[in-house]
Write a structure and sequence with these properties.
Strand content: 15-25%
CATH class of the largest domain: Alpha Beta
Radius of gyration: 20 Å
Distance between the termini: 43 Å
Strand order of the largest sheet: 5-4-3-6-7
Structural class: alpha+beta
CATH superfamily of the largest domain: Glutaredoxin
Number of helices: 7
Shape: elongated
Number of strands: 10
């Protein structure tokens, strides 16, 4: 069964390039991004892993851990990391799960439950559905699910933008409009009554319709 927003992210234990982890314990009180790959030594994924390594400090600023996944064993991951550094200039500086038994891929609905056999015997095309991004909150709930085709590299700047929105809206009763970036105006959440909104925003709000109540970003300087 596929995961959706609001589901508890399945916990699991797995070998990674940084040792064995228990996923929920590894997340701790942080946010987390799990992004998966159909196989090692694939071209688009190589660019993604290198780019994620280069922007890891941005995730660190947001108290967000990042972890990759591929069905290959750890030894392959280590060799791939050398290629990625040569190609992209930055080797992965975060753990990469060795999902050799396909357990995590199945738990997260990326592969059918009946998939069996040696992981390295499967082609990237057979694992085409293992091209996902999951953002998980400190409460271990799934906050975002993105699924990409093999031919389209993922935009991780957009993932950062979504995390900014998720963290803002988790603390304040607001929503973010289309094309929002930090500092832009936000929308008072529909769960907030006009009476409650007047208490929080005594200067009022603007909007073309009563149900669109636009106010400044409450965290903007």
């Amino acid at each position: 069964m596929s995961l959706t927003i609001g589901d508890t992210a399945p916990d699991f234990e797995a070998e990674t390039t940084e040792g064995r982890i228990s996923f929920h314990d590894w997340i701790g009180d942080s946010w987390a991004v799990l992004f998966s790959h159909p196989r090692d030594f694939t071209p688009v994924c190589s660019t993604e892993l290198g780019y994620m390594a280069s922007i890891k400090p941005e995730f660190d600023k947001r108290d967000t851990k990042i972890i990759g996944l591929s069905v290959d064993p750890v030894d392959n991951h280590d060799t791939w990391a050398e290629d990625i550094e040569a190609i992209q200039g930055t080797a992965p500086n975060y753990p990469l799960i060795a999902d050799t038994d396909h357990n995590v891929s199945k738990l997260y609905g990326m592969l059918p439950a009946d998939v069996e056999g040696e992981s390295t015997s499967r082609t990237p095309a057979q694992n085409a559905t293992v091209r996902n991004v999951f953002v998980v909150g400190p409460d271990k709930k799934v906050k975002l699910v993105l699924i990409y085709p093999m031919t389209t590299g993922r935009n991780f700047d957009e993932v950062l933008r979504v995390i900014d929105s998720l963290q803002l809206t988790a603390k304040h009763a607001v929503a973010t409009p289309a094309q929002w970036t930090p500092g832009d105006d936000v929308i008072i959440a529909g769960s907030v009554s006009d009476e409650q909104a007047k208490e929080k925003y005594p200067d009022g709000w603007k909007g073309a319709r009563p149900y669109i109540r636009i106010v400044p970003d409450p965290t903007a300087a």
